[in-house]
Amino acid sequence: MMLLRLLPLLAALASSALADVAFTSPAAGAKIQGGGPISVAWRDSGYAPALSALTSYQLFLCAGGNDATNHIQLAAIMTQGTFAAGNVAQRTVSAGIGGSTENAYFLKMISVATQGGTITNFSPRFTLTGMTGTFPPNVIAGMATVQGTDGPPAIDAIANAPVAGGAAGAVQPAAYTVPYDLQTGLTRYAPMQQVPPTKITKKVPTPLFPTSAYTIATTPMARPTVVTTLVLSRTFSLSNRENTAAPVAQPTDDMAKFLARWED
After folding, report:
1. For residue 35, what is the domain's CATH number?
2. Which sign does the torsion angle of CA 174, 179, 182, 185 carry?
3. CA dist 243 to 148, 246, 247, Å?
4. Where does the UniProt annotation place the signal sequence (predicted)?
5. Which of 38, 90, 157, 199 could form a disulfide with 172 if both were Cys (CB 3.0 to 4.6 A apart)?
6. Contact (Cβ atoms closer than 8 angstroms) between residue 9 and residue 25
7. In which domain, by residue range, is 67 found?
8. 146-188 pLDDT, tens per residue?
9. 121 within a domain of the structure (yes/no)
10. pTM, two decimal places
């Protein structure tokens, strides 16, 4: 009887699992010679959203902890992949991009859904041996917090289905954290504009973000592929109040005579 009561709950949990992409290679805990090719393979996990509901993807090699603040992208395995082209990818990465810490590395795949938005999946952890580089301090600290071979949890930023009344659901904030030039699809997402500070402290202006790569057009270019850019809604509020201080009296000295000249 108790099992029958649990079945609907288990089915609901399975249908909402964020595991559409299941990585099959590299295997969890695998050791791969650094400086050589990294072969990646994946399959449909059987949970929503299905691979058939995804269009394109970007695939990156990462290292560090499971929190977004303590892991980094080290190299791009594929920047313009399509699921229609298959479920494998391969690229050779330099041995100098990081160290050989055990299970320091994992893969990050950002997939674009046909209904809009993205979902980000992470592979199990593996080791690159014979590496000649080093990791930043925050990445090393992030590794120390990891136990086992699980990568970070998936990030669901797929556009929600319409809710009652016909209004579309809000996109998850994670969609706005993907760098703009790494996004694909008809809809792109931009972060919230920063609030101006109340005091200027910098003496030398410095850019907030690195410059973007560009190509000078020498022939007519193709039509733009981005239809809509959504900007994250502001999360702060403003309040106003009346200034109740009494106004300063008009001058009565020579300044009053000077001001009176302009009344004509």
Report:
1. 2.60.40
2. positive
3. 60, 9, 10
4. 1-19
5. 157
6. no
7. 12-158
8. 999 999 988 888 765 333 333 334 455 667 777 777 776 667 7
9. yes
10. 0.57
